[in-house]
Backbone:
């Protein structure tokens, strides 16, 4: 809900409405996105992307409700009934949460496989680092496994 969309449909009103209607089926929480936002005002791209993700998420949820409804009850007992929406290879895709354990490095809070790590040697060359052009797997994780102190004389 936008803060200025309607003076009657406040965050509290919408929360109370959904909480009352969802008793026994789902629960609600209030979350004001502006309080979570980091990095300044959203760009037109951010707003457009957020709208696309929101529309896709709502379509997915309504599709799942139709797919899993039987005799007035919803059965969400498959792996894909709890998913995360994200971008993969230029498209928005849903990934079951159960798959995240195998694909996540929880210690460093990053995915185990990151496509952009292969670009690090090129980025270092462009940034004029004094390095060898190492394209091995260990070079891709260099930023996680060791810190290299650069003498002040070379700065």
Residues:
């Amino acid at each position: 809900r936008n803060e200025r969309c309607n003076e009657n449909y406040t965050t509290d009103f919408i929360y109370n409405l959904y909480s009352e209607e969802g008793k026994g089926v789902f629960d609600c929480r209030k979350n004001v996105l502006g309080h979570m936002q980091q990095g300044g005002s959203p760009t037109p791209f951010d707003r457009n992307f957020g709208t696309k993700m929101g529309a896709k998420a709502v379509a997915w949820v309504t599709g799942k409700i139709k797919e899993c409804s039987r005799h007035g009850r919803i059965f969400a007992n498959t792996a894909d009934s709890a998913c995360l929406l994200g971008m993969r290879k230029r498209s928005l895709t849903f990934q079951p949460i159960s798959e995240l354990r195998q694909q996540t490095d929880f210690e460093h809070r990053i995915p185990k496989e990151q496509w952009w790590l292969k670009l690090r040697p090129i980025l270092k060359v462009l940034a004029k680092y004094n390095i060898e052009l190492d394209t091995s797997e260990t070079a891709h994780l260099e930023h996680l496994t060791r810190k290299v102190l650069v003498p002040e004389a070379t700065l």
Summary: Strands lie at 69-70, 73-74, 83-88, 91-96, 104-105, 110-111.
